[in-house]
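Most newcomers find our protein records easier to grasp once they have seen one. Read left to right, the backbone structure tokens trace the chain's path through space. Once this layout is familiar, the rest of the handout is easier to follow. The record below serves as our worked example for the rest of this section:


***
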Amino acid sequence: MTAIDTDNAPFERPVASELRRGMADCMPVLLGIIPYALVLGAQASQKGLTVAEVPLMTGLNFAGGSEFAAIQLWTSPPHVALIAAITFLVNSRHLLMGAALAPYLRHLPKRKALPALFVMTDESWALGLADAKARMARGLEPAFSLPYYIGTAVIFYFSWIFFTTLGAALGPVLGDVEAYGFDMAFPAVFLVLMRGMWKGFRAARPWLVSLVVAALTYLFVPGAWFVGAGAVSGLIAAYLLAGDE
């Protein structure tokens, strides 16, 4: 990786410094990710996945929410079409996340932008976007610091694989890891991310629509349809309400 190639950034930091800055900024969030990575690995092992299969799943898919949904639906033999459909719906939020990030990636060639999008998670996206907006406010170009983003994403990627694998290895010993309360880390991390992105009630209306629809579907419709209902309703609400912003 070379230094950022811009002529308009006399105060731009070296790549190594930006990488370290990204790694440092992701550490508080990483502490919240580790517990539910252990929970996912333990649940996967209880569903029959081996210690070798868990990192294969978490490394190739790398999307915690859809992996939890897939494990909940996992049977022997698995209903592949249902799991793939739910995974797509859960990950469909990445369409909006990618669209929000796209204006900041225009200076990047596809050979850099596409791998960066592969390792995009809610956490790296939120940190990268917030950093880009902060850099833009300071007049730095390009606003999006790829080394900073990679610094966060790579830490999340390898930590996720390592701790889900560790959870799979320790799961049979620990038993029901949810009894330790580790699963509470999952919503806690998202609440912290939402707090950092909060722009007021008006901008949060699609979140509210998604929450209400998912909750009602969970109460009245059997199965995992609440996942898809929440995702689709949130996307539709964001599209319909976009004109009000």
